[in-house]
Amino acid sequence: MLKIYIRKNTSYYFPIYYTVLLIGKNRRIRFSFTDSADNADLVWDHEHPHSEVITGEFYDELVKEKPELSHKKIFREEQLIRDSKKRKDLIATIFYMVNCLQEFSFGKNDIDDYGRFRYKSSYQKRFNSIEKNLVQQYIDEFCSEKNIRGNPKASTFFISHDIDTIYGSLKQDGFWALKNLHLGAFFNIIAGEISRKPHWKNMDRIMRINSEYDVKSTFFWLVNKGKGSHNIKNADYSLQKELTLLQKIRKRGFVNAIHKSTMEMSFDEKLARWKIIEPYNRYHFLKFLPPKHWPVLSASPITLDSSLGFAERYGFRNSYGGAFQPFNFKKSKPYNFVEAPLTFMDTTFRNYMRIERRKIADIIIDFYEANPHNCNFSLLWHNTYFTDYKYGGYLAQYKKILSFIYESKIKSLTPDEIIAEARLSWPTNKIPATTP
After folding, report:
1. DSSP assignments along 166-177, one per residue
2. Residue 28: inside a domain
3. pLDDT tens track for 356-373
């Protein structure tokens, strides 16, 4: 077990301690922390002759009241932080990327009309690296330099479904059928509405399909109806009237979670009112910004969030494929919840990137095969995309993905399993000496 020494009462102590634990979690190894540099295998001390690289100006910036963390300042020519001697600071780079620090300093044009950080404003767009698991590359490089082996784990999936609408088929599918002169489809849609079996109220079908491939997925439900901020539509259903459906989902071993609406209602209120919903969340419309919403999540009962993804582009929003606990700067320790970044979303492929639907499954499969270790790929497939007509063809792609997962014996994790794998062993005392 490698012994680590980090000089206390410095701007870099907690960020480096956090990053070392993250590396240990990634490699499934444990480090011990010592109070003596003489007994340590790795030393971070700006006054020690054999210290690891420490970019002091970066860490000093972190403790300022309003730090300047724009990627244009941090990554001037490359996606790396270097010290004054131009040496790579892999630890600082990992810390910056994982915690989305580029989103803590932004200009007016970096945020879209819904308050989301724009993909086009990111360093991933600037360096064309959204599909690169850079944090993993830097962890591997650091471990190779220090002869740290560890045990990488096979990549996994987290499958989920945002339930934005269950009664919109009549209007949307019906319009599609008439526009494309599919009268038979139109009458089938009408018949479903008359028999109270709307085409998009298909949770039984989703569970049946997932069960065929031994997948237990998570359903994110909107609690509020009507329009919220930015005129965004929330649910077209009443959760009270759908309780039997949610109970059926739970009974079959699937998970009900919160799809935080754009209306002003706290997580505490939602969970207190709806006991059948577990404390896991995804923000509706991905209307989510880390520096604003991570403190909100931390002050709530939520234990897992899966909102960290660009609506416009699939890939790694924080350049990391794994779930993690974000760092809380005010308390100098990890937040008390786990973030499971969103990697793939059906509407990203359809509405933003406009990729041919027949290519989607192969893109996701190829992405997995390029990142076979230490990733938890979060795949969001709305209930509307399990249907025919307007979204015809997407179900075949989903089944192809699940078939790959099943035949490759890839694990599909539940929120609790993700939390158990990602949670850091952070000591309760403020200045830790050794890991528990």
Report:
1. SS-HHHHHHHHH
2. yes
3. 999 999 999 999 999 999
